[in-house]
Amino acid sequence: MTGAEFLSYVNIAGAEITLALSILFISVVDMFFGERFKNFTYRASMLALVLVFVWLFMYGKTDGSLAFKEMFISDNLAIILKQAMCLMSFLAIFYSRDYLKARNLFKSEYYLLTLYATLGMMVMISGYNMLSLYLGLEMLSLSVYGMVAFNRDSAVAAESAMKYFVLGAIASGTLLYGMSMVYGMTGELGLKEIAVSVSQQGTDNLPLLFALAFLIAGVAFKLGAVPFHMWIPDVYEGAPAPVTLFIGTAPKLAAFALTFRVLVDGMGSFQVQWEMLLAILAVLSMVIGNVVAIAQDNIRRMLAYSTISHVGFILLGFVAGTTIGYEAALFYTLTYVVMASGAFGLVVLLSREHDTDKLSSFKGLNQRSPWLAFLMLCLMFGMAGVPPFVGFSAKLAVISAVMQDGYLWLGLIAVLFSVVGVFYYLRVVWFMYFDAPEDAVGESDAYQSSTLENRIANIALDHKIVISVNALAILFFGLLPGLIWSLSKIA
Amino acid sequence: MFSETPLLSLLIWLPILGGAAVLFIGDKKADLSRWTSLVIALVVFALSIPLYTGFDSSTALMQFQENRSWISSFNVNYHLGIDGFALPLILLTTFITVIVVIAAWEVIQTKPSQYLAAFLIMEGLMIGVFSALDAFLFYVFWEAMLIPMFIIIGIWGGKNRIYATVKFFLYTFLGSVLMLIAFIYMYNKEGGSFSIADLHALQLSSKEQFWIFIAFFAAFAVKIPMWPVHTWLPDAHVEAPTGGSVVLAAVMLKLGGYGFIRFSLPITPDASASLAGFVIVLSLVAVVYIGLVALVQTDMKKLIAYSSIAHMGFVTLGLFIPFYIVVNGVALGQGSGLAIEGAMVQMISHGLISGAMFLCVGVLYDRMHSRDISAYGGVINKMPWFGAFAVLFAMANAGLPGTSGFVGELMVILASFKANFWIAFLAATTLLLGAAYTLWMVKRVYFGEVANENVEKLQDLNRREFFMLSILAVGVILLGVYPNPLVDVMHASTNALVEHLLNGKL
Asked: Do the Cβ atoms of B120 and B97 come closer than 8 Å?
């Protein structure tokens, strides 16, 4: 590698390098001074993410330049996703502060793991080779397993981490198996070369079809599409709330990139085949996600199933198989993570000491804090896809894209099941607005100390400001969806 | 001068932003929020008057147009404008909102600022629906409107409010998403335009028209509502607070009728023609069967709700009967315009009358906390002024000549006679049935001996109540004896619509 080449690589992968160096720096400083400056890692991690964001903004290459023997690509898609990723990780760290402090979990490992996961995801987003994609994916997964089990004393968390680990390992194995079959048939690992070779071999190549099925199973697991969704509700419920917030947002961006790179860039000539498979996954996700969510009485489980249904929508964009479809899917993903970060953020901020996060804990929120209730209302109607919130524009973009491709029936299924979905979002609104707060009924002292009023009063001002901005963004972008839509122009 | 002022935008956004301001004032300064709301409602009403005075009734073109690019990559425009159909409905909306704010004055004690804000926001959204000329914009307003109504019924409603409001939301939402699919289909077919004018001109095969008509029908028939998808309305009406019922009956139901006029008829004229028989049968069922159902109600609000459905049956009848007015072998002959204008007059008049009747029930309910007809009797002895108003509105509801209720019904029945005697005959039974159920209720509630000691203690209207009922009464009588100002603004638009229907799309 010549010096000039090295410099150009730094230029292309600068964001990852910045982040990796920051992680090393923070780890070292934390080792020596961690005891003395409790907030150091927390602040430094956020600062690192801001740095990366700024770097991406100023120097990020959107021209598709390749680095490291074509294992790494920096294109428009990568830059947008990474910026969104920084934002999401930033929010995940930011919202977690008081929650972790209250539970004596405010440790620097938590933030380092978040940063490692973020780094893994950024590698994944820019992966242009099966190896780098897999590397990023595993870096993400391993960090997240640790985060889910972060509360050592919690049996529930340990159980869900175990489940996640076992299932995640199987999924990784499946994906790897698919990749190795592709490698066996094409002799290539680079996505560009695979695309060329695959298109020459034709679509009636049985081993490649098998490989495709395995790849899709692996990707679907990471996205959380039915029938590979089993881990989502358990992990969402069992993990500490801020971890759920993190898992529910940033990895969706990375999974989007993974899907796009593997299926569109790599297996593009099998589009007819994977469109069919994805259509089935999408329909199942929308049906199961929306219907089962109705039966949940835990807000995190409900949001987990709602995530599954949103993933169905994201997949619909891929089913369209057109540039407009991919753009719509990206638009949907970006919108979804903003909504999810707001909703989970509120769950984190309002969460009880010994949290069960029952849906009923939102009862009477409007009487205690009209402002927070209004924010949650925006988020819920946004997720339900009711205008004027941005969720509506996102749904419209996706449905319009599939219908343009001739899938009228998919559009119909999508809207009909979003009507089913509206019900459970409405239920949150009715708990907040129409019911009296539960804590009016006297219970044990421990319970009383975590009344809704106390929980609201405990929210720090900076958290309040950020969550307001986060939720109002749903309304703002709903009125001006063109702003996100123009970001989503991939090509 | 007014053509340069973005009058429609003002009418939409002033109440919405005003509503937000009222929210921020909060419940602690309840009186300040009340006065602010009243001022906003009055200003909006005042601003809507130039729409009427500046309206050129000689043309069917859209007026007071505003057109800006909104989401350029989707080719969605913020395009507003009104014609002779939208104008009266906007005036009705601004007028009714003033009444609702006054009606809430000291009646609503829980969270008054949220209550008033919800109504103001809803006012802006409803005006948006009536003035949107872009289907996307229309849909945004159409759906967004559900949110404040959902909240209004849910917070300030009666015992069964949650069931009623969720049912209301889901019913109307289900209907609307099918309309959305139709919009997207046409958007893709048109090559990327949501403009309503483009959709009017879009060529569609008869099969496409059929399915698009069905999709629209799902949205508008639920909203207006038609038998058999009307069941959400009695629930919503009974549980809603007085103001909610008033807005629901007076304006929100009219959105369905407006939808038929703005979308179903012009976009799918041929499907409308071939399915007109179906719609007419449903309308007659609503008029006759729902009229009978109204007769046996024991709850005053429910009775008015069923009577609303029956009256809305008249509207759909008026909108679709023209296809059966065959002159010299051609449908849509002389009298078609009369039917459509009759339907419009019926909508406006029903807006005033049903609003007034719900207010009357509200007046009684505030004093006695009961809506049961059997809890009352001889009210007029204790509340002579109130009784006079209530009887007037009841008469108007029954279609007494000289009130606005008569005009619309007469126009539709006259037009129906040109189509078919039996249709007209069945439609005319409404005069009988309407009189039966309304007057029977009046007899049981207002006349006779004073029924019990609760009625004995009743106080007559206070000044606020007197004021709001009397302006409604003036409106009802004015439209009844001199409906020309209303009918005149619609002529040009009606003629253009009939012309468009005659040409068809096949």
From this structure: yes
* Residue numbers of the domain that contains B138: 7-503
Question: Count of A–B CB contacts within 8 Å?
Answer: 90
Q: Is there a contact between A422 and B144 if contact means CB atoms under 8 Å apart?
A: no
In this structure, the dihedral spanned by the alpha carbons of residues A25, A29, A31 and A37, taken in order and rounded to 10 degrees, is: -140
Distances A54 to A86, A484, B261, B290 between C-alpha atoms, Å: 10, 19, 53, 66
Is residue B165 within 8 angstroms of chain A, CB to CB? yes
C-alpha–C-alpha distance, residues A217 and A198, integer Å: 19
Structure confidence by residue, pLDDT tens digits, B94-105: 999 998 898 888
Tell whether B115 is within 8 A of chain A (Cβ). no
State whether residue A72 is helix, strand or coil.
Answer: strand
| Digit-coded pLDDT (tens) for B28-46 | 888 888 888 899 999 999 9
Identify the CA nearest to A197 among candidates A276, A142, A267, A145. Answer: A267
The phi, psi pair for B77, rounded to 5°, reads -115, 150
In a domain, B174, yes or no: yes
Per residue in B341-393, pLDDT (tens digit) is 889 998 999 999 999 999 888 888 888 888 888 888 878 888 888 888 888 89
b/e map of A213-225 (b: 16 or more CB within 10 Å)? bbbbbbbbbbbbb
CA pair distance B130, B124, nearest whole angstrom: 10
Asked whether the beta carbons of B245 and B358 are under 8 A apart, the reply is yes
Q: Cα–Cα distance between B250 and B483 in angstroms, integer?
A: 18
Q: Are the beta carbons of A380 and A428 closer than 8 angstroms?
A: yes
* Distance separating alpha carbons of residues B102 and B108, to the nearest angstrom: 11
Distance (Å, rounded) from C-alpha A106 to C-alpha A88?
Answer: 19
> Cβ contacts (< 8 Å) between A404 and chain B: which residues?
188
Q: Which residue of B has its CA nearest to A381?
A: B147
Instruction: Establish if B58 touches chain A: CB-CB under 8 angstroms.
Output: no
Compute the average pLDDT of residues B121-127. 92
What residues in B contact A370, CB-CB < 8 Å? 23, 26, 114
DSSP B137-168: HHHHHHHHTHHHHHHHHHHH--TTHHHHHHHH
Distance from C-alpha of A253 to C-alpha of A80, rounded to nearest angstrom? 10
- Chain A residue at shortest CA distance from B173: A419
Check B73 against A486: CB less than 8 A apart: yes
Q: Do B181 and A404 touch (CB under 8 A)?
A: no
Tokens read off for B305: 């709700």
What are the residues whose beta carbons fall under 8 Å from the beta carbon of A200, sequence distance 6 or more?
none
Q: Tell me if A239 sits within 8 A of A157, measured CB to CB.
A: yes
* DSSP category for residue B260: I
Does the pLDDT of residue A174 top 90, yes or no? Answer: yes
Task: List pLDDT tens digits, range A472-491.
Answer: 888 888 888 878 777 777 64
Q: Is the CA virtual torsion B82, B84, B85, B87 positive or negative?
A: positive
pLDDT of residue B2: 43
Comparing C-alpha atoms, which of A165, A100, A113, A149 is closest to residue A355? A100
pLDDT of the residue at B124: 92
* pLDDT for position A447: 52
- C-alpha triplet B273, B312, B472: angle, nearest 5°: 140
Chain A residues within 8 A of B146 when measuring between CB atoms: 386
Condensed to tens digits (0 to 9), the pLDDT of residues B56-98 reads 888 888 888 888 888 887 888 888 888 888 999 999 999 999 9
Following CA atoms B337, B339, B340, B341 in sequence, which dihedral angle do they give, to the nearest 10 degrees?
A: 80
Residues in B touching A426 (Cβ below 8 Å) = 150, 166, 169-170
Nearest CA distance, B189 vs chain A (angstrom)? 8
Following DSSP, what letter does each residue of A147-195 receive, concatenated? HHT--TT-HHHHHHHHHHHHHHHHHHHHHHHHHHHHHHHHS--BHHHHH
